[in-house]
Amino acid sequence: MSELATVTPVRPTDQVKRDRWGRYLLPHPDTGKEQTWTRATTIANTLADRYGLEQWAKRNVALGIGARRDLYAQAAAAKPDDKTTLTRIVEQAEEAAASKAGANLGSALHRFTERIDAGEDITVPEPWAQDVAAYQSTMAANQVTVQPGWIEHILLLPELGIAGTCDRLCTSPQWQSARIADLKTGQDVVKYGMTEIALQLAIYAHADYWFDTETGEVKPIRESIDQTWALVMHLPVGKGTCTIYEVNIAAGWQAVQLALDVRRWRQRKDLAHIINVPAPLALIPTDEQAYLNLLDRTEWVRDRVENIKAFNHGSSLATLWSLHPEIPTFPKGGPKTAEQLDAVISMCEEVERFHGIPFGPSDPTIPKQTKSMKREQA
Fold first, then answer.
1. Which of 14, 48, 22 minimizes the C-alpha distance to 197?
2. Most exposed: 42, 44, 61, 277, by fewest CB within 10 Å?
3. Does position 61 have pLDDT exceeding 80, yes or no?
């Protein structure tokens, strides 16, 4: 049982090329040229309320330190600026609290159902056999069938430059069109995550193309897919129950448009400008260009923080950030000065280096060196 709980299945979609930010690198259906695609989960998370998830993570850290006296001792001995040590303590505390065990078991349960839906005859060990049996009986009782070949499909919306991987496409004699479907195994994911789910499934339902991982080709979607309703099969690990939810993705698609507007709005550079008469530079070493540079760097750092979260290491960054309560987080307005931005950049660099996260674009306010500049320096 322990092996099942610690190994995450590797799927064909996991082998698809990605860029340094974890975005898909796939050919465009019109040009055939490889490009980056914004992930569907990134759009879906734009409107997410992360408070509940962050509180859950904090509770797990407290439980983990309570369960591991060695972690408590290390935390008591550490200084506030021992960032790497404190980050490791947090991660080990989360593991001690089994905060990741549920995710690993959920991945295994996903894989069991995928293989069964693909037509494989497999033996599922206890106690997961009860979960799988509940899934099969619930799907059969509701006359829901998984479309053959539509398991873990990468879908693309070229018009919006978005791509993502959907779990299933399902059919039923009760529906006129097939429906996008998603299997969820977390205990409270439906209760706290339906906003993101509705957006994500709406994106998949509006996709025009899919990426064939076997041939490396982008192909048009031939099936008629319902753009009003989708499904969520909630199969919480170890409960032996399965509940099917009908999700209003027409409302989800409206929220997608709102999320896209929010992302565009965040890129605005015309929200403020300096109106005061500048004092002598010797007294105030700043000008309008410096202010614009601050705005550019702020957006650059915001993207960097989002990338760390996309690699599931947001808790590590949050731990480091908690050592600087004077610096507002982005949900609370973000860093206000160049010095605060420098501190956040330092945190990002530490998390990226420790977890091996690829560095993104360089500081947009630092001019790129030309060959002539390099020769002059030499």
1. 48
2. 277
3. yes
Q: Which two tokens stand for residue 23?
A: 């975005």
Report the CATH number that the domain containing residue 193 is assigned in CATH: 3.90.320
**The pLDDT value given to residue 81:** 82
Are residues 305 and 216 part of one domain?
no
Would you say 175 and 152 are in contact if contact means Cβ atoms under 8 Å apart?
no
Confidence of residue 283 (pLDDT cuts 50, 70, 90): very low
User: Cα–Cα distance between 8 and 15 in angstroms, integer?
Assistant: 14
User: Which of 218, 244, 261 is at the close of a domain?
Assistant: 261
pLDDT above 80: residue 114: yes
- State the amino acid at position 204 in one-letter form: Y
Question: What is the C-alpha separation between 349 and 356, in angstroms, rounded?
Answer: 10
Q: Are residues 298 and 149 in the same domain?
A: no
| pLDDT attached to residue 65 | 86
**Pairing outcome for strands 145-157 and 209-212:** antiparallel
Say whether pLDDT at 371 is over 60. Answer: no
- Per-residue DSSP letter, 362: P
Task: Give whole-number Cα distances, 228 to 45, 125, 163, 274, in Å.
Answer: 20, 37, 20, 47
Find the domain containing 316 and state its range: 288-366
Q: By CB neighbour count within 10 A (0-12 exposed, 13-18 middle, 19+ buried), where does 93 fall?
A: buried
Domain count, the chain: 2
Same domain assignment for residues 137 and 175:
yes
Task: List, as own/partner pairs, every contact residues 347-354 make where C-beta atoms lie below 8 angstroms and the sequence separation is at least 24, other chains included.
Answer: 347/83, 347/317, 347/320, 347/321, 348/301, 348/304, 348/305, 348/308, 348/317, 350/83, 350/84, 350/87, 350/320, 351/87, 351/308, 351/313, 351/316, 351/317, 351/320, 352/308, 354/84, 354/87, 354/316
Q: Which of 285, 297, 364, 360 is nearest to 334 (CA)?
A: 297
- H/E stretch holding 110: helix 101-117
For the full predicted model, state whether its pTM sits above 0.70: no
